[in-house]
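We treat protein structure as text, and this decision shapes the records that our systems exchange. The remainder of this section carries one protein's record, kept here as part of the documentation:
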Amino acid sequence: MKDHYTRSWRWLALPALLLSIGLTVVYTFLPGDAIPVSAIFGRHEHLFIPATYTFAVVAIIAASLLVYAGYQLLPAQRHIPIYDKIAQPIVFSSLLTMVWLYTFTQEYLFVAWLVQVGQLILSLVIFTRIRNEMNTTLYRQYKWIQLPFTTAAAWLTFSTIVYAGVWLKSIGYEGVPFGENVVAVLAVLAVALLANAVRNRYHDFIFPLTIAWCCIGIYAEQRNAEKLVALVALSTGIYLVARVMIAAVRQSVVEVSRVYAPVGSSGVGRVPNHRSQSA
């Protein structure tokens, strides 16, 4: 009975994702009486908002989530428990997405930001559960499922700061006492440090690369308006990409060393100790 109850959350995950993603598309392209998200950004513009094309990562997340939602229902995946462990937070996160769409487009900006914080917490729960399972040999073949959820966790980490800035601008905050440009720089550095910490802790490359994409988006948006913010964002994005590449090269060197280590340490070609033989 317990297994049946747990597995039922898997079946709820697919319609929940379909509904939340469908509503996101509707609110983006056919908002009706609601205020378009882009219009709200225009009203409360701040220096941490990236270029419009940066938001294309949301489409990648949505598409990969739909693939995952269908794949985890296949008969061959029925007895893989990782899908059951993350199904419930997926459903709750989808419900929060729908709440966020309504509150944000109705300009209940503080409530929308709180909802986004809830989404971020759920995404981090999913991320850590997947990472813990991936440490076992059984799940190494399922590493691909990290893509949608790690990307979502990184994006929500970034967007939570973006929407916090939108709310703060709506109540008249101008970066006191440091100035808006310094606050934006501090925000870029903070999110980059977090991305680097995730890479160090979990040896993950998706999270920092997603944050790097967002930082480069800030550079593209601010390069002609606020050069300090743009320079820091570009430098941060390049650093995160370089950090991932260096780690990948080091990992490759370690794996090659492990492959050839037994050859070097074997007794083949070892010079005999004539003294010990004669003794």
Residues 264-269, 274-279 have pLDDT under 50 and may be disordered. The two ends are 73 Å apart (CA to CA). Residues 219 and 231 are 7 Å apart (CA to CA). The first helix runs from residue 2 to 29.
